[in-house]
């Protein structure tokens, strides 16, 4: 109830001031101030545009007041608008403006230091193009029975359980209006995913939530039943996520509500466990056979997998298994170490996994080198908020991008860093109905839709300025990076990109391929013999 202390205090001031004002007229000011505060607090409770104001009547205005002078305080005493912690105020402000469909231009000049190391830009053309349509599409699974035309920008995996019911409703309704997809996360398909009718990518984690038997193993009949839903457009097998790769998860029994238990197919009153690895396969070939099985059980819908790159020989083993078996996923999503989650151990969040840029380029290079890139679509996910972030990711090898936290900002997230406490102040990352019921799904769905719309429009404008006609034309030669005060390199010059089919004719000079490609085994995720020997040579 501390959330309502300001509102309660206003009532106390009003009720005390009225009788005092009748005896001492000077107390009329107290009554007037109390009346104004009570009226404002009541409006906060009744309005639906701001969840924060509904959850914190009157008190929220103190935050807005402090926030309004925040840029000045940070400028002189704390930090710059461009400091990322993990998202800068500039990044968040851009999402807020586009979600609210207000002016997103900036005055006077860039806040970026154009002469700082790592500053990046896209070169423009003296012959800019005109693109009439901003609705860029990529066909996934063109040879599948039910191919899907994906948007170039979509909602990344965030489960019901991590996000509230109304947050899921708003995301899916926004996706429906904008014609882009909403990844369910590994928590399965909840009623709140289905209610609005937006396109879904069903993420299948190691717990097989929504399609598991009583022992937690994969149930093909339950999977086929769920996958047959018209809203389910693609299936994504989650191998790992960037924020905590190689780490399973446990939802404590106390948090397994009746709704979550029904959605995931787990019992109430018991811990809900996501194993760190999949019980259905333990080899690269087994993964691909599982993907093929899911494609058949789903009636020919596109099936792929998501992973954060770790040991390079494990990814190389999967790639070799693709080449030798001919079993291919329809798509691969590369998640980066910079990705977010509701909660993760500090060491995993800070020091486990390859960042998205390097992981994406490794996957792209491998598929190009094997001559498979045209048959497999690639997506990148990891701290994407702007059209330039999308353009840079596409230039590094992706076909489309996914974002999670950016769409949370569109819902009204204020980066309070309280996702793991169940006390999210904006009703997004909480299962407390006293908080999430104040998030109006229709209003927030409009913001999700507008953020997506304005971002892909900005991407169109970037492409026009660069003299291009479609995002697929973006390549590493278009992105420039300052590597020192006096040196500039394009990504094409900065990184080694393989030629089509290069891996079919030998081992390239690329350092990672030279070190691990030859020893990768398509029948095992295990380390190459020479690395295993090094491990065994160490004293225990």
Describe the protein in words.
The chain is built from 21 helices and 15 strands. The chain has helices spanning 5-23, 28-46, 51-55, 59-68, 70-76, 89-100, 165-178, 191-194, 220-227, 258-264, 284-297, 312-325, 346-351, 356-369, 387-395, 405-411, 433-436, 441-465, 491-494, 511-516, 529-536; strands at 120-122, 137-140, 148-151, 153-155, 182-183, 200-204, 232-238, 249-251, 272-274, 303-308, 331-335, 377-381, 400-403, 479-484, 487-490. Strand 12, helix 15 and strand 13 (400-403) form a beta-alpha-beta unit. Helix 1 (5-23) runs antiparallel to helix 2 and helix 6 (89-100) packs across helix 18. With 540 residues, the protein is α/β, with parallel strands linked by helices. Helix content is 40%, strand content 12%. The strands form 4 sheets. The protein has an 8-stranded parallel beta sheet with strand order 4-13-12-11-10-7-6-5.
Q: Could you give the order of strands across the largest sheet?
A: 4-13-12-11-10-7-6-5
Structural class: alpha/beta
Number of distinct helices: 21
Shape: globular
Mean pLDDT: 91
Distance between the termini: 55 Å
Indicate the low-confidence ranges by residue numbers. Answer: none
Number of strands: 15
Radius of gyration: 26 Å
Sheet with most strands: 8 strands, parallel
% residues in beta strands: 5-15%
Helix content, binned percent: 40-55%
């Amino acid at each position: 109830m501390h959330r309502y202390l300001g509102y309660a205090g206003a009532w106390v001031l009003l009720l005390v001031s009225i009788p005092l004002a009748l005896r001492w007229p000077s107390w009329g000011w107290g009554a007037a101030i109390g009346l104004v505060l009570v009226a404002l607090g009541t409006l906060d409770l009744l309005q639906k545009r701001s969840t924060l104001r509904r959850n914190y009547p009157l008190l929220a205005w103190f935050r807005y007041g402090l926030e309004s002078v925040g840029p000045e305080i940070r400028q002189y005493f704390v930090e710059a608008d461009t400091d990322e912690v993990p998202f800068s105020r500039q990044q968040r402000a851009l999402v807020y403006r586009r979600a609210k469909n207000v002016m997103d231009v900036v005055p006077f000049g860039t806040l970026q230091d154009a002469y700082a190391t790592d500053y990046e830009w896209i070169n423009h053309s003296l012959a800019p193009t005109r693109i009439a349509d901003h609705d860029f599409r990529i066909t996934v699974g063109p040879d599948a029975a039910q191919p899907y035309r994906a948007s170039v920008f979509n909602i990344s995996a965030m489960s019901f359980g991590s996000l509230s019911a109304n947050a899921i409703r708003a995301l899916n309704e926004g996706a429906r209006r904008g014609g882009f997809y909403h990844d369910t996360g590994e928590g399965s398909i909840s009623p709140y995913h289905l209610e609005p009718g937006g396109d879904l990518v069903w993420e299948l984690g190691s717990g097989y939530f929504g399609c598991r038997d009583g022992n937690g193993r994969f149930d093909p009949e339950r999977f086929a039943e769920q996958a047959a839903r018209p809203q389910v457009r693609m299936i994504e097998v989650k191998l790992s996520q960037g924020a905590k790769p190689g780490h399973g998860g446990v939802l404590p029994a106390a948090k397994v509500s009746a709704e979550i238990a029904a959605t995931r197919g787990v019992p109430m009153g018991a811990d809900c466990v996501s194993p760190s690895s999949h019980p259905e396969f333990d080899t690269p070939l087994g993964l691909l056979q599982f993907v093929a099985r899911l494609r058949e059980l789903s009636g020919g819908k596109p099936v792929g997998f998501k992973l954060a790159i770790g040991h390079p020989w494990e990814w190389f083993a999967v790639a070799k298994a693709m080449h030798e078996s001919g079993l291919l996923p329809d798509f691969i999503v590369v998640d980066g170490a910079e990705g977010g989650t509701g909660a993760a151990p500090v060491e995993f969040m800070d020091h486990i996994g390859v960042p998205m840029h390097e992981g994406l380029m490794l996957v792209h290079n491998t598929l190009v080198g094997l001559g498979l890139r045209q048959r497999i679509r690639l997506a990148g996910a990891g701290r994407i908020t702007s059209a330039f972030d999308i353009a840079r990711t596409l230039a590094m090898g992706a076909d489309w991008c996914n974002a999670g936290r950016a769409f949370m900002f569109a819902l009204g997230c204020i980066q309070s860093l309280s996702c793991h406490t169940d006390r999210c102040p904006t009703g997004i990352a909480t299962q407390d109905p006293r908080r999430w019921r104040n998030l109006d799904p229709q209003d927030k769905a409009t913001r999700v839709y507008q953020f997506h719309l304005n971002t892909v429009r900005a991407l169109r404008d970037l492409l026009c300025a660069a003299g291009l006609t479609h995002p697929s034309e973006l390549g590493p030669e278009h992105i420039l990076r300052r590597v020192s005060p006096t040196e500039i390199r394009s990504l094409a010059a900065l990184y080694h990109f393989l030629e089509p089919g290069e891996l079919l004719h030998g081992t390239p000079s690329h350092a990672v391929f030279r070190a691990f490609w030859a020893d990768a085994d398509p029948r095992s995720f295990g380390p190459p013999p020479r690395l295993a020997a090094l491990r065994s040579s160490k004293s225990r």
